Amino acid sequence: MDVFAAARRATLLTLLLLGSTCAALAISPRPVEGQGGMVVSEQAIAARVGADILRRGGNAVDAAVAVGYALAVVHPCCGNLGGGGYMVVRLADGTATFIDFREAAPGAATAGMFLDGDGNLVPDASLKGWRAVAVPGSVLGLDTALERFGTMSRTQVMAPAIALAREGYVLSAGDAAILATGTEAFRADPTLAAIFLKDGAALKAGDRLVQSDLASTLSAIAAGGPAAFYRGEIPRRIVAASTAGGGLLSAQDFATYAVRVGEPLRCTYRGYDILTAAPSSAGGTAICEILNILEGYSLSSSGAGAAETVHMMAEAMRQAFIDRNSALIDPAFGANPLERLLSKDYAVAIRARIDLARAAVSTLDDPSSAPHEGTETTHYSVADAAGNTVAVTYSLNAYFGARVMAPGTGVFLNDTMDDFTTKPGNSNAFGLVQGARNAIAPGKRPLSSMSPTIVVREGKPYLVLGSPGGSRIISSVVQTLVNVIDHGMTLQEAVDAPRIHHQWLPDV
Q1: Do residues 163 and 253 lie in contact, with contact meaning Cβ atoms separated by under 8 Å?
Q2: Is the pLDDT of residue 308 over 80?
Q3: How far is it, in rounded angstroms, from Cα 64 to Cα 57?
Q4: Bridge partners, 23 (sequence order)
Q5: Mean pLDDT of 81-103
Q6: Please, what is the Cα angle at 28 between 23 and 33, to 5 degrees?
Q7: Mind listing the pLDDT tens digit for each residue in 395-419?
Q8: Which of 227, 402, 425, 445 could form a disulfide bond with 280, CB atoms 3.0-4.6 angstroms apart?
């Protein structure tokens, strides 16, 4: 069985097979294929952790959980315990499960919590500091997957991450470059400075990063399960730091947080079955809507990169992002019109409105400049020899989240409150202008573009896809899929190919 998994072009693509290692080159090398399993991650050390779990007889879920914890250590900008995300699991027997471990607003959160007395947004209040932090879900999400589908113990899959945190690891040039982006924030916080700076300066390639507090936190979780993170000393420390810093987190928020387990969102594209993220993520819905629109065009005839192809894709994205930003909501707080948005008839109606000779015009004034495709968030894909596949996208939102850490925990906390509609008509960090349905409310999960996706052909896994990049996750996944299915590219070519993006607003 050949199983392929994609990572973003802008980041290191590390393909680890049982018995071999291959780092992707800048110019589309031959794709790597394997029979014994595969782990794809932005960070090579974390990918090796997952591959070693497979070598030791673990399944794809065991490896995925191990990678998730390892990334919290070796990719601290994005891998995390203090964030959240989504996982799609497809077992070899064809059964598929979606795990929603997205962060939730604290119980004390209010719709206008980031506005001043005049109703204006307080600059950066939803991005930096303890008030920007939502209740994290990653620990419970990873543990839920392991309990339901894993074959190894929590201690076994967490041991590599604990060792990496306690003993440290040597920074690569890429690791050091990412850490350097946080230097000023680290200098402003003695807790962060003690871990991530050396005599007040950024760590360099070749330095060893040791995270003793994080090792202790991971060890507590390995011994006590998620209860150690959601009840007891760890949340007590986090809540105390949050309170001192003007945040809203409470012990009750941690104690009542719950993962949602259900069916992945399903759609089809040219005979392929797509399994992707369901709400509270908006990513899977947007991907399926875009694919439904594109299915009515002959992209293979117009050709990859042709003006006609680019126009059709941009218009499909524009239409899907209108719905993504205005129609969707955390399903615990309202109904989502998925039957309409995902219907082929709806796509036909949208295509009828698209002028193939002229770009449409988005209807609101542009509130911001278009964001560059970023590397915030992280995605990894896993497949084992039996045919089990796992796609995971999880995040702190921005690099290093809210750039806060409770002393003694080693855990970066997210700035996911910025993913809510902090004020209707205003854009978030990724330029998205979202509607009132995504307004802040206690316990609510903000919409997300995270889109872990598994593509099935003739009953067998064909692609395992995902990406970092904020709102550009959606367009990255769509274009990688289209490049393979419509344009006949190898997976490596599909990942390396130039991409476009449109998200309705800003209209550029």
Answers
A1: no
A2: yes
A3: 13
A4: 14
A5: 99
A6: 60
A7: 999 999 999 999 999 999 999 999 9
A8: 445
Q: Is the pLDDT of residue 351 over 60?
A: yes
For residue 432, is pLDDT > 60? Answer: no
User: Contact, 80 vs 379, CB < 8 A?
Assistant: no
Element (DSSP H or E) covering residue 384: strand 378-384
> Using alpha carbons only, what angle is made at residue 445 by residues 439 and 447, rounded to the nearest 5 degrees?
70
Residue 434 pLDDT: 63
- For the segment 162-189, the average pLDDT, to the nearest whole number, is 98
C-alpha–C-alpha distance, residues 99 and 87, integer Å? 5
Cis (ω within 30 of 0) for the bond into 506? Answer: yes
- Phi, psi values for residue 284, rounded to 5°: -65, -40
Question: Please, which residues bridge with residue 405 across strands?
Answer: 412
Which of 27-36, 46-55, 181-190, 381-390 has the lowest average pLDDT?
A: 27-36
Q: Exposed, middle or buried: residue 312 (CB in 10 Å: 0-12, 13-18, 19+)?
A: buried
CA dist., res. 304 & res. 493, Å (int): 11
**Which has the closest alpha carbon to 482: 469, 468, 500?**
500
**What CA–CA distance (Å, rounded) separates 467 from 433?**
21
Whole-number Å distance between alpha carbons of 423 and 427: 8
In degrees, to the nearest 5, what angle opens at C-alpha 322 toward C-alphas 451 and 103?
40
Kindly state the average pLDDT of the residues 319-325: 83
Average pLDDT, integer, range 29-36? 78
Using the 8-state DSSP alphabet, how is residue 42 labeled? S
DSSP string covering 218-240, please? HHHHHHHTTHHHHSSHHHHHHHH
At residue 242, the pLDDT reads: 99
Phi, psi values for residue 163, rounded to 5°: -65, -40
- CA 331, CA 333: separation in Å to the nearest integer? 5
Q: Which of 451, 462, 453 is nearest to 4 (CA)?
A: 462
**pLDDT at site 52:** 98
Name the token pair of 208.
């060893």
Q: DSSP string of 161-208?
A: HHHHHHH-EEPPHHHHHHHHTTHHHHHT-HHHHHHHEETTEE--TT-E
- Residue type for 456, please? V
Give yes or no for residue 8 having a pLDDT over 50: no
- Does the annotation mark 363 as catalytic? no
Q: What end-to-end distance do the CA atoms of the chain give, in Å? A: 42
Above pLDDT 90, what percent of the chain? 75
Residue of 80, 38, 44, 52 whose CA lies nearest to 159: 52
Q: What is the mean pLDDT of the chain?
A: 89
- Burial group, residue 41, by CB count within 10 angstroms (0-12, 13-18, 19+): buried
User: What average pLDDT does the segment 208-227 reach?
Assistant: 99
Residue 283 predicted with pLDDT over 60: yes
From the list 135, 131, 133, the residue with the least C-alpha distance to 115 is: 131
Task: Indicate which residue of 14, 375, 377, 409 is catalytic.
Answer: 377
